[in-house]
Model the fold of this input.
Amino acid sequence: MLPLIMANPRATHVDHKIAQARLALGFERVWAALHWPLVLLAAAAALVIAGLLPMLPAWVRAIPMVAWALAFLWSLRPVFGLRWPSRHEAMRRVEQISGLSHRPVSARDDRLPSGADGPVQKALWEEHRLRQLKGLGDLEAGVPRSRWRDIDPRALRLPVALALAAAILLGPGDIRGSLYGSFTFAPPGAQPELALDAWLKPPAYTGKPPLLLTSAAMAERLKQDPELHVPENSVLSLRIAGAKAPQLSFHELFDGDAATPEITGLKPKVNIADGLFQADVTLTRPANVKVTDGGRDLGAWRIALIPDAAPRVEVTAAPTGDSSGMLTAKWKVADDYGVTGVTADIYLADDQDEGVGFTGPGIFEFDPPKLKIGLRKASPKDEAGESKADVAEHPWAGFMVEMSLTARDAAGHTTESAKRNFRLPERVFTKPLARALIEQRRRLILNPQEAGGVAEMLDAILTYPRGLIDRSGTQIAIAAVRSHLRAAEDRAGIDTAIGDLWQIAVNVEDGAYADAKAELEALRKELEKALKQGAPPERIAELTEKLRQALNRYMDSMMKEAQKRLAEGQQKEASPPPGKMVTPQDLQKMLDMIDKLSKSGKNEAAQQLLSQLEDILRNLRPGMPQQGQGQGQESPLGQMLDKLTDLMRQQQKLMDETQRMPQQGMGGEDPPNTGQQPGEGNQSGTGSLGDRQQELSRMLEDLMNQFGRNGMEAPRSFGQAGKNMNRSEGSLRQGDREQALGEQGEAMQNLREGAKGMAEQLMQQSRGQQDSQGQNGEARGDDRDPLGRPLPSSGEDQGPAKNMLPSELAMERARQILEMLRSRAGESNLPKIERDYIDRLLKGLY
Done:
């Protein structure tokens, strides 16, 4: 029976636990015996690493070292008295840890007494052992436990451990030197008095850190690569103490050990005071730097320079202009360490419309127009942008010019771009009087000596003002200019007349809204300045409100001017261009958005939106459709697309309200009987959800009939959407929210497909209309709508140049909505119907 017991797996498990218990007891005894030796070793290590022992005299240092040695030998007494735990001790530990009584584990080693070894006694004994073995279920040997708290009740080990950690972290760091100094009792030798420090400081604009040439890390680095590469114009600084005759020399950077000629172009600035030698030199060429003290070499470094490349700049596209005289130039700059500034230079071109040169020398008396190039970042390494300038009033407007850009970097390098030849934009005048005044102004610009002839032409205009001059103020202003020209004695008088003629022509062209326009422009510039300077939100809100009021006055005056011109027959009623038109409400919404952006601290986005508002206002003209005229002439397809948009909006709103409708059978109680059909309990002003779904189905049916009346075929997806709406109506009336939401989602998908096809048809129609638009305000010759955006058939919205990036505001709002949907979809207690609804919203986003 005994062999069977020994082979029992449970007996093997018990033996393993006993072995583990012996190891745990042995570790506890060894750990307890090593407590004081480890504390004494840690204390000695703290003193050595901290560098305290080398600071003491030799005889003073010997006393604590002898005391420590005796204490350490005394602390080893428990180590020599260690005894490995017996099997019986391990069994008792297992019984104590496992909470067993009556010694079931240690009894395994018990034997029958002599004389009681008969067959019956042996059988009973083995049966007893087997039963005890079966009762030993989960045995625990226990993990080793430290008795240091009992051995060291005052916790002296803690300050010793803290001292060791402080010595390691805050000590001198030279453990080998401290250990050598602690156990060296011979007197130290004389320390050398010579000290050399050398470092390289790259220019600040490079952003690179200084290099300490005399550090140990640099010495290891130079063993791998003996040549240092630093930016051009780096400064080498030396500081030598204790040298008798220090010398700094520069030699040609040649390979090999042969003597190289000395460079004479590098002249260091040397300062010697109180035995300290200091030298600084700017490295403008590669050199082998050597430092000597008499015949003793102190250091040598091979230094190669990384040249600072000149900046790169180009005008990426031919400068353009619009009918208001706004110059637009696109550019791109780059530099290895950053561009510090870009300037634009504009010159008169030799080739003009009349040939080479000009008919008179007067135009050369005027300074060139200014185009300010602003960098969005400080010292950008690579940046592309667009700059604008209003050059309509400049005397060079309308003439051929050449423009080049000059980029500068922090090192003083400059680069000039290739010249671009173009016509400087000029304002287009339509009224005869304004055009006549501009013509005489141009004549005065080219030939100032013809001031008398210009005065005679103005006199002729004043002689027969009927039908030409409609305001007495204009007549008085022209008469004043005529008088100034006749009395002009120098160039200043001619320049004053040129400026007055421009102002009179602008007032004649703009009519009654000229003052409102000037006020609006002044407030816009003031608001732009406040946004750039980071003015308080209260100031920005005040300027925004003033700009809003000025905008209302400007739009009213523009409307009156348009009505006046129509009444006088000066212009025909304009038809709207294809695409979306801007309304006064759109402009007010832009101002509201500017106000919100500034209050949220997004001044940069507010400036961009204000710039867009400037483009819109600059392109507005009296009589354009955005003042409310001609809006009833939208194409039938465009009208149907508007109706479809409204239908989709209402369907989406109904879908949201269906989502909030309680599901039949949910809530724990039956709803009270109110006499209503299922699905009619959620009223929202226009009837039940089912009735509203029925009304939307009728709207879709009317829209499809309108296609037939206009000779067009309705998209097939509309028919499927109608079927989805009918099924959704039935589900709503039955209170089946899940089925209704599914049908409504399918209906929305089919409506979107139909809207996409309609939009494509509308764009195809607009391609044939764009080229036929005139120049009376409907189009400005640059294929853009009143908002300054490309028309649907060309430009940034179509073809290879299509701008696929949405605005910053749109992307931020999309991110917020997406994060909200993701967070909602991740909730574990979300009802299934709502989870399915969110999944449908997220479908297609990944």
Notes: The longest strand covers residues 296-306. The longest helix spans residues 737-770. Residues 510 and 561 are 8 Å apart (CA to CA). The chain has a mean pLDDT of 76.
